[in-house]
């Protein structure tokens, strides 16, 4: 019994997977195709998140919960779609700065938490702050400045103390 399903090892090849009403399922074999062509000799489960499958000649297969560690930022704080290629990342004072090709810099507060919200997303563009919207590098210096490389002649600086951009 594994994650609410019954798993059976067949004497010839593969496994059988059934729901609590013994209706056939195919979730494990579809995500782990090798299970279709291997002789399974033993199964062990903790009923929650881990299944060990012993095979005849193909070693041990470990099946665990697939965690989705990635989130997707689909739109900006102003509601506009975010479809620009990303060229640079840098952590600046607990914010993730994202340099884009054509959309300037986008910053995310609480970027390493599950509760990233639109209120924590800011955008910086050529209208006010940057020399160019095609940002290819972002680097925090030891001198209290952030160096921003782009397609523009020159470098955009960000003064961490004054929180102001400098077009240099």
Furnish the topology, listing elements before pairings.
Layout: E1 6-9, E2 15-18, E3 24-25, H1 27-31, E4 40-45, E5 50-55, E6 60-64, E7 86-92, E8 95-100, E9 105-109, E10 121-124, E11 135-140, E12 145-150, E13 156-159, E14 164-167
Antiparallel strand pairs: 1-2, 2-3, 4-5, 5-6, 7-8, 8-9, 9-10, 11-12, 12-13, 13-14
Task: Write structural notes for this entry.
There is one protein chain. The strands form four sheets. A four-stranded antiparallel beta sheet has the order 7-8-9-10, with no helix packed on it. The chain has a four-stranded antiparallel beta sheet with strand order 11-12-13-14, with no helix packed on it. The chain has a three-stranded antiparallel beta sheet with strand order 1-2-3. Helix content is 3%, strand content 41%. The chain is mainly beta and 168 residues long. The chain is elongated.
**What value does the Rg take, in angstroms?**
25 Å
Overall residue-averaged pLDDT value? 80
Strand order of the largest sheet: 7-8-9-10
Category by helix and strand content: mainly beta
Largest sheet: 4 strands, antiparallel
Which residue ranges are poorly predicted, with pLDDT under 50 across at least 5 consecutive positions?
Answer: none
Q: What share of the residues lie within helices?
A: under 10%
Number of strands: 14
Q: Which range does the strand content fall in? A: 35-45%
Write the H/E string, N to C. EEEHEEEEEEEEEEE
Q: Output the number of helix runs.
A: 1
The global form is: elongated
What is the CA–CA distance across the termini? 65 Å
